[in-house]
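Action item from last meeting closed. Structure (124 res):
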């Protein structure tokens, strides 16, 4: 059974950094594209970043480009999200998810397994 578990969330001041981790179990981690999504209170879940299987092509939503970096360690079955220069508007629950698609994609319907999420709060 596939399980995804996020960690690394917390409270940080604006301008600070956090690194989220998502540990996967079950399945063959290296065979899947992995993505990060977030959901703020009262808002819809939105795509943040994704990294493909194989060569590790990446994709980001415009609001995080240049500040966030997604990476993966297939030996550890883990995907990371390094978040720098955090802003209050980055406050949300962050979820990692798995996709069968070859390339990074922002459509949540292309992701079949999700973690429970980790809270990120950025204070001003």
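Sequence:
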């Amino acid at each position: 059974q596939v399980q995804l578990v996020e960690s690394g969330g917390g409270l940080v001041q604006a301008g600070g950094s956090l690194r989220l981790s998502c540990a996967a179990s079950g399945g063959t981690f290296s065979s899947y594209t992995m993505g990060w999504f977030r959901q703020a209170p009262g808002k819809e879940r939105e795509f943040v970043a994704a990294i493909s299987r194989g060569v590790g092509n990446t994709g980001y939503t415009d609001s995080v480009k240049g500040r966030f970096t997604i990476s993966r360690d297939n030996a550890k079955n883990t995907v990371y999200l390094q978040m720098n220069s955090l802003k209050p508007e980055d406050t949300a629950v962050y979820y990692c998810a798995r996709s069968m698609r070859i390339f990074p994609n922002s459509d949540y319907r292309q992701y079949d397994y999700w973690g429970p999420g980790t809270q990120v709060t950025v204070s001003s």
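Note appended to the action item: The chain has a mean pLDDT of 96.
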